[in-house]
Amino acid sequence: MHRVITIMMSILILSLVSCSKKKSVEDILKDESKITENADINKKLSELKTRLSSAKDDFERSEIHGQISEIQLEKGDILSSRKSATEAVKFYPQSASAHYTLGKTLLLEGRLSEAETELNTAVSIEQKHAPSWYELGNLNYIRKNYTNAVTMYQRAVSLNHNFYEAYNNLGSTYYTLKKGKESEQAFLKVQSIKSDFAPLYKNMGLLYERVLNDKVKAAASYNEYLKRRPNAPERAAVKFWIKALEN
Question: Is the entire prediction scored with pTM above 0.70?
Answer without folding.
Answer: yes
